[in-house]
Amino acid sequence: MKNSVFFYLFFLAPFILLAQSGNIQGTVTDENGLYLPGANAMIPSLSKGAITDFDGRFTIVGIPEGTYNIKVSYLGYADLSQEITVVANETISVNLSVEPKTMELEGVEVSAYGLSGQSKALNTQKTNLNITNVVSTDQIGKFPDANIGDAIKRIPGITMQIDQGEARNIIVRGLSPQLNSVTLNGSRIPSAEGDNRNVQMDLIPSDMIQSIEVSKAVTPDMDADALGGSVNLITRTSPKDFRLSATLGSGISFITDKPIYTGSFLLGDRSENGKFGWMISASVNDTDFGSDNVEAEWTNEFEYNTGVEDSEGDAILEEVDVDPYVNVFEQREYLVERIRRSFSANLDYKFNANNTVYLKTMYNWRDDRENRFRLEYEILDAEDIEEGDFTIANGVPTRFPVEVKRQTKGGIDSKRNKNRRLEDQRMQNYSLGGNHLWGNLKVDWMTSYAKASEERLNERYAEFESEYIVNNDVLNSRYPRYSVANTADAALNNFEYGEVTEENQYTDEEDINVFVNFEIPADIFGKGDGTVKFGARGRFKEKVRDNNFYEFDLEDDFPTLADVPVKDYSDTDFLAGSQYQIGSFASEEWLGVLDLNIADGELIIDEFAPGNFTVNEDVLAGYVMVNQKLSDKFTILAGVRVENTSLESKGNRVVYVEEDEDAGIEEAVLVEEVNGENSYTNILPGVHLKYDISNNTILRFAWTNTLARPNYEDLIPRAEVINEDNELVLGNADLNPTTSINFDLMAEHYFQSVGLISGGVFYKNIDDFIYTFIYEAPDDSLGAGTEGYDVFQPLNGDSAAIFGMELAFQRQLDFLPGFARNFSLYLNYTYISSSAEGIRNEDGDERDDIDLPNTTPNLFNASLGYADKKFSARLSANFSDSYVDEIGGNDFEDRYYDTQLFLDLNATFQFNQNLSLYAGLNNITNQPLRYFQGVKERTQQIEFYGQRFTLGLKYDLFKK
Fold first, then answer.
1. Which of 128, 110, 98, 102 is nearest to 35 (CA)?
2. If we measure between CA atoms, which residue out of 629, 677, 672, 669 comes closest to residue 521?
3. Which of 13, 269, 425, 852 has the most crowded Cβ, counting Cβ within 10 A?
4. Which residue, among 710, 737, 732, has the nearest Cα to 719 in the 3D structure?
């Protein structure tokens, strides 16, 4: 009986009350007719209201019949009050427009220039119940960021891993890229990466996105696989009225002195009756650039052949105590053309005030054409080093024999490849959804199809090899270098044919997403507005990787490097230093026109078969949550989410068969198909508290539970033998998902002049984090001839903890006199401390000397901006501290991502309301990507990209 009464009161009563009330459905726009997210639409006499979504849309239900004043408040804009009459059993539509407000300082009227974007972001952040950071499209435009990854790195607690000078992989609050989720309009973005779940943020142009929302404390209606946070990219939507925007620009990449071309347009409108809206946009960016790279591996072991044999005829080796030195050295020169294209078409149709449907589409396509020229040195095996071949000075080997390889990387001679390796990456997303109001019940739904792919066809390598003695330059360990002891040894005719190979790689990931949400009003505590929301989601994913690899024997045709066309790629302006002169290589044109018929090549199964797989992952989820006022100032959001994950995988294990003449067994490589299954259910409760100390001062607290699923290939019980590097990579079908209990406390104060000062702390208690365990194979049980190989296998650690602090400040300095009031500051700082248990070294002993990988101790963003009626400029700095990137077999082998400081400058001049000129200079500091091994002085990789300058025109036309 009690259950029946509860069901009646909680679920049926709102629908019966429908006969006595009506609803309001409205939009809020700015002075240009652009929709405003995060606006507060309130009926003061009823203490009822709603917050506009990213489309500027709000709905207030259950309003008694009558005439009311509806008030709209928005930070940086004047309050608006408008009278509206509500009719029972009807939904009334209303369009509200607000105007920027001016402030009076000491009797002088002051206008805030260029703050509309900041206002949109801060209003959304302020009105959200959970802890978020928001960046709007206008703010993105104030930074010289070509892709969305470079824009995101400006957000507190975010750092980005760099690839070819652009931000690619996102780290949120110190957690690895695969531990964070990235969505497009709330739908998961699939990953084109072959071996992980990382989403390539440099694939999406920044001018295709309306706003970025980073949720650092997820709510129950959001996907739970967001250990660090969830990044939602919101695409541009149909405008209220006609809008045309276009950009045309160029520039130069100083490392190659080659031009940059960029262009974009946006066109949209709405029908006269306001029912049908459409928007199309496109963007293209063509950059011809490169990078100058030096890499090294360090060791603290040295052995040589004494020339004496033991009783079994094996050479007796002598070990020498040495200090760390470089045993592998590489110099690389990259030449890259990157063409990024994007197209979006969004439609919406409003049947009536209660029913709207929409279609949102986006297609991103990036071509990376790359040539790479690699000069590689590796010290010979101890058996091949004799007394007299080496010199050790002050405990460091300074002279020794090495194997030297000159390798050219390219592609076929075709219109698409242009003698370069072509990496074709694409990401597409198509979402169909709707918003409906059935009495007091709000319903929204969406179904989407998304696909990401990476294709690298006809990728070719040509390698020529030699051996000679080098001098090891030990003067500066930050810039390691080998030089040939006898220059005659480095002659081209001394480099013998090594190999010519061609490989084809293809990876794709397809996602089908379906979700539905229901929301009903429920004032449980009698304190005003409240809701109960519940829903379900299904996500069905398939990931496939299909590679092959062929080797060709062309030694008779090209016995030495002197027998092929070569180019000298030495560059006195090499950014790592003029002391690095890379020399001559087989030309990319020669490599491109080689007639390589796969029928004449040898299929090298062990090079690709272990990495091929098919994975199917299904996630079914349901949730319920309540959003209630405990008082006029105190709000609680509480709920629980349940996610069930089912996974099936198929891969390969390589089996090496040793030759046994007595048994008549020939040497062979066999491929054994392996299959794996995994299934688990996670129950994930969460609570969010929001206390309004005043209208502009807010205190927030959150307790959430999140998870991260293992990388697909880690779950396959596979074995990949890399004979060239004496390495063995294993899968682990028994991996558990990583889970985290999270606590957040944040205080925020919003300035009326459109600004923010905030501070907070967060703590994460993580179980079953995944790391790569490295050890030395004790015997051949993992494969014939693998004794002594370095084995890499993912394992679950025991537990880890992260403690962090975030501070942020942004505002216009309108309190200063004269023109100085046009300056603005944007500052944020994040501190992170971590600890990890259960990480073991190569001997199996637990390590207590290491942080959780990818936890950056210090992050800092700063920018100084200036804006008046015509001119605006911004100088921006982005700093991230060094951190452990990859755990080695011991502390000597740990790899660290080094400190980075990027400095960028951009400026805009407004000719009139519609036309502006922009200019930008990126990477003023010529910040390299740098890794070091164990200690900061031992460079493992350093890669320079140089500066880029852009200049262009932007045209905007609004019609109200």
1. 98
2. 629
3. 852
4. 732
